[in-house]
Amino acid sequence: MYSVENANKHIKLHKYNVIERFKPQYHITAPIGWINDPNGFCYYKGEYHLFCQYYPYDQVWGTMHWGHWTSKDLVKWDWRGVALAPDKSFDNLGCFSGTALVLDEKMYIMYTGVHKNEEGIVVQEQCLAISDDGYTFNKYSNNPVVRSSDLPDGFSKTDFRDPKLLKTESGFRILVASSKDDVGKILSYKSQNLINWKFDKVFVDNISTMPECPDYYRLNNKDIFVTCLMNQPMQGLKYQNDHHAVVYFIGEEKNGVLALDKHHSIDLGQDFYAPQTLITPSGRAVMIAWMQMWGEAPANYYLKHGWQGQYTFPREITIKNNRIYQKPIKEIESLYKDTIEISSIKIKEKTSFDNVSGGVLRLQIEIINITSNDVVVYFFENKSSYIILKYERDSGILLLDRSNSYYPVLALPDGDAKNIAKVQIDQYLDSLNLDVLLDTCSIEVFAENGKAALTSLVYPDESSDKISFKGEFTIEKLILHRI
Questions:
Q1: Which is catalytic among the residues 37, 159, 223, 271?
Q2: What DSSP assignment string belongs to 193-261?
Q3: The pLDDT of residue 241
Q4: What DSSP letter does each residue of 138-150 carry, written as one string?
Q5: How far apart are the C-alpha atoms of 89 and 454, rounded to whole Å?
Q6: Does pLDDT of 234 surpass 90?
Q7: Annotated catalytic, 91?
Q8: Domain 336-482 - what CATH class?
Q9: How does pLDDT run across 342-364, given as a tens digit for each residue?
Q10: Where in the chain is the domain with CATH 2.115.10.20?
Q11: CATH 2.40.30.10 is the classification of domain 4-331
């Protein structure tokens, strides 16, 4: 029988058996086991709280628990153990993803409980848990509060998950992902008390065969809706995350329905999924996502290191010209150990610098006077392995290639693993700015002031710390912050 106590006891007994070779230095990960979607991202009683889909007993996906961290600054996170375990009849097959709402000094969590109904069919239903301190949670005794029988006719009872809990002027609302006849939809339910819920309407219609992890917030007087599209075929450079694409819509809700504008990808790297966004007390929109992708076999998996899964560094979201821009939150500066700056360096052949190296750092580069077609930066480089970041001037494509990583990211038997990620930026740029985060086994790239992003897991050799440049251009300014 699963329980919070048993899970935390297991973690305490076995966490030192984990091999830490690829454990990130400043990205969030659990002490042992598997994590995927971030959950319940909120601010409560002076602390940021972040939860996760968690299976502590193995390094692969299993019966989902909720893991828990807290932070004072969004940068340094303290592991608080397991918050929810699949220990009730209504969630004994898993406590799936959900969100948190802070109200009247309490934290309310809505999550998806998975179990078999009386007919033996696996169903997904929405459940409520409540905390008075942010650390211990009591599940509502009459869960689930939104049952599969509450679905409109024809909707899938086995694909009905990931509630986004919202406070409205008239009460409360959840947005829940589902599908009907293999057409993905987001459903809206309303309540006055968080206990009694009624179906309202289809909030978003016709999005892939099944959406997941809906996120919804308001910024700059715009309604921003984010979701993950399952089984979404790639179309040129669209949906480059592979079989699961993360997209956002900026529009305006009218009469309880979101009038969708053109949608865009948030991050077209290989490893970005299930983002959650928090509006902080200061009004900033901060986003965290799972930095991995379904179907992959990362090196720490096939080398049996005892853990899988980590999160992107928190990103601040802004809106410009009806597009999302993103950058690492400013609190990253508290992690800097030392800083190196160089400027006005002309590159004509492959070039490296003695003091520009490392694998745990932030690198900000301003490039001007581009005359070659390709601008190439090599990361995690040694004689035989490297990661390539390349801007192709004639096509306007920014490309991240991990094909030559020392340890490859492989595909699971029924999965896939992409080595090359691409995003379209402007063609024939004379200048280019890049902001790159490197950690032990990851790279996050923000280009053109955060208009484009590429995130990828990479697994270098321990000696692979060289950074070099190739093409014909001038490095106007390079700032390297060691972390």
A1: 37
A2: SSSSEEEEEEEE---SSEEEEEEEEEETTEEEEEEEEET---BTTBTTTSSEEEEEEEEEEETTEEE--
A3: 62
A4: EE-TT--SB-GGG
A5: 41
A6: no
A7: no
A8: mainly beta
A9: 999 999 999 999 999 999 999 99
A10: 4-331
A11: no
